[in-house]
Amino acid sequence: MLFPPLQAWIAEGLPLSTSSNEACKLYDAILTQYVKWRNDETVGGFEGCFSAIQAADPNFVMGHVITTGLELMSTASSPRLNESLASAVRRTVELATSQVLSPRERLHVKAIEHYSHGRFTKACDVWEYILVDHPTDLLALKFAHDGYFYVGAQAHLRDSVARVLPHWKPHTPLFSYLKGMYSFGLLETRAYDQAEKVAMEGLALTPDDAWSVHAVAHVYEMKAEVDKGLKFMESREKDWQVSDVLASHNYWHWALYFIEKGQYEAALQIFDSQVFRRCKTTGSMLDTVDASSMLCRLEMEGVCVQDRWRELLQVTRPHTDDHVTLFNDLHFLMVSLGAKESGTSQRLLEGLQELAKEPGDNQQHQLARTTGVSMCQALMEYDQGHYDRTVELLYPLRYRVVNIGGSDAQRDVFNQLLIHAAVKSENKHHQKLGRCLLMERDAMRPNSLLTDRLMQRALALHS
């Protein structure tokens, strides 16, 4: 080691308030795993590092910021219900008030506190404030990136990375991973060709960057270039599957190509062998919403998914009362409806309605009042076969759905739901609307096999 980790952070202009070189090394190990979407077993993985950093320096504020922040970012637990997580946030704040810290570190603590109370956008504002003075603060950049993802702030995803990229040098550790992040922002703002170019630049530097692979997968999905997507994912599978935190999501993208082609057995094979298997093992919210959405898409296509809903319900049911994000809630509801578990579905809806009455400054609960509750009701109406009512609830919200977070590819399940409902509705106006929505979809994604199938179905039903 040329110089101790503590000095390395100072040299980077990002000093850490601890006297423990070991704590600094572990902070770097956690951040590196976060950026790479990968548990590195040589350092004990995320969990091993979380324990070790607390032991190395129990009062290391940025150690608390990164560990508590990552638990909050996972959206798998609500500080409103989980006292251990709420206590971890309070401990971080208390430590910050009892020590001499840099202004940057104090701002990190403030951002985590905002985030824990559901003030996602305010937290992102604080991380952006940090990045103006410290453009190489990768934790601020990654936390902001994920925060923007959870509120559907597409232009922010792009611009946040664009602002700092010129300050990074090719030799700066983890530089190449900014390419994948920037690419994701570009594709979410429909700059598909540029997004592909930037992601491929990232992969030329780091072939196993699973987030850059993921960005290219999105580009082929949004352009309905299915065969290109299948070839790309298969040719690079050995590279990206080592990123265990993102692997299931990349397999989900692979399966979407098969659904697009109408090759449902191939999609189900990926669901069983990869997506659900990993979801059951990890309990990750990303893996769980992907599994939920995939079954929903397959059922809308007329595929019998058998007992898979009930198996997935074992993963989602413990989260019925969490209400951390609307995006999660809607996917949990798909599962309870698919499993015919009406009590769980009702409980989820009523819990959300209750929080929407007095949301305080929790952004997700505020959004529940204007958007989320109606979207949940639309899913329930569709499940009951009330297609006209589904259209009445969902159609006025279609340009607001972006606010629930996720990506265009993930939110497309709600576009498909609206089209299916309109096509199946007895209402003649809705039937015409369904065909209009399909024409609109065809204009955005020429050559989509799924759009063609839906149009044929609409014409057959309404002729």
Automatic annotation (TrEMBL):
Signal peptide: none
Domain of life: Eukaryota
Keywords, in A-Z order: Repeat, TPR repeat
Assigned protein family: Belongs to the TTC38 family.
Name of the featured protein: Tetratricopeptide repeat protein 38
Organism of provenance: Cyclopterus lumpus
